[in-house]
Amino acid sequence: MSGKSVLKVISNLVTIVLFIVLLLTLFLVVSMKASGGEPSLFGYQLKTVLSGSMEPDIQTGSIISIKEVDDPTGFQTGDVITFRTEEDILVTHRIMEVNEGGSQYITKGDANNAADVEPVNAENVVGSYTGFTIPYIGYVMNFANSSEGAALLLVIPGIFLIIYSAVTIWGALRQLDQGKKEVNTNTE
After folding, report:
1. Among 69, 84, 178, 182, CA closest to 128
2. pTM to 2 decimals?
């Protein structure tokens, strides 16, 4: 394989990768904005962990997957749930005790010394933790959910794609120009 064909294959791969990154970023940003920052796929949601209350199992800055629930009264002691507090904050903690036939839960973060002050009403449960976590990606998702982050994550791949296209076009024009010069020198 000649050097030019290797460069052409590499060039094509770079183009494909840039387009895929741009499309995936576009999909991520649009889906997060359309769902109010709560992307959901097949009944699963990705949540960003912003505190260390569940460490070491769930690290700060991770993303976790939760399964949306149909029956929020069916949880047992030891289950990890995500719920909405009265301040409209999402929290993921472990159930320590089930009260009133499953209509209330006493929860606690694994790294916390004491149980949460307020019991969790079943209707405030958003979902249950599936055990899926990816460390540190939550920082990126949290940034992508901001207006500046969404714009930046769309603009940067676009700029790289434009620069790469300009370099490719410039190279093609130089080859055409060089080809014309060779034709002119051969005909003289």
Report:
1. 69
2. 0.61
Please give the Cα distance from 82 to 48 (Å, whole number): 11
Q: Tokens 């209509």 appear where?
A: 103
Give one word for 43, left, alpha or beta, with left for phi > 0 and alpha for psi -120 to 50: left
Q: Sign (positive/negative) of CA torsion 110, 114, 116, 119?
A: positive
Q: Residue 3's pLDDT is what?
A: 72
17: its two tokens: 């990768």
The residues annotated with a catalytic role in the active site are 51
Angle at 64 between CA 136 and CA 55, to 5 degrees: 70
Phi-psi region of 91 (alpha: psi -120 to 50; beta: other; left: phi over 0): beta
The residues of the chain scoring below 50 in pLDDT are none
Q: Which two tokens stand for residue 100?
A: 């009133």
